[in-house]
Amino acid sequence: MAKLVTGLFKSRTAAEAVVNILAERGYTRDEISVLMSDATKSKEFAIETGTHAADGAGIGGAIGGAVGAALAAIAAVGTSLAIPGLGLVVAGPLAAALAGAGAGGATGGLIGALIGAGIPEHRAKVYDAGLRQGGILLGVEARTDEDADQLEKLFEELGAEHIRQE
User: Fold this and answer.
1) Residues paired with 89 in a beta bridge
2) Which of 74, 107, 110, 121 has its CA 20 to 30 A from that of 101?
């Protein structure tokens, strides 16, 4: 059975590199989840998501193109879910899981929402702290167990912290 591989990235550059490699390997936006704070999205993606420049550059379209286009496409307005009360933007399969877990009204905040999405409590606490510090959490639904191991190595090579297979 395929696994969800997650890792926390401290920089947009590292997260973009992973997403671009995933796109080259045939992964789509429907298989890649991105979580970040509203503050991180505003800071890191202001040009892409706050103006019509994203539309003109095709960022909201297919994954590929210039470096960073894939991550910007995933984080772009219209492809993500803003979770009220948590100050988060979530895109990809985890968005549906968090919405289904009732994240908007969750009394446990992000930690409770992540637990509801299947991430263990201790890992959810680590991710919560990392997101509050401006990190970007990536999750990929690996197609096979072997692929999950390769994704874990990729995350590690590109600087992810707190990598986990669920």
Assistant:
1) 36, 82
2) 74
Residue keyed to tokens 């984080």 = 75
Q: What is the pTM of this model?
A: 0.76
Closest by CA to 95, choosing from 82, 108, 110, is: 82
Residues 41-79 have pLDDT tens digits of 777 766 544 444 444 333 333 333 333 555 665 555 444
Read off the tokens for 118. 């299947």
Other CB atoms within 10 Å distance of the CB of residue 24: 11
**Across the strands, what pairs with 164?**
6
Sign of CA dihedral 43, 13, 160, 63: positive
| 165 touches 148 (CB < 8 A) | yes
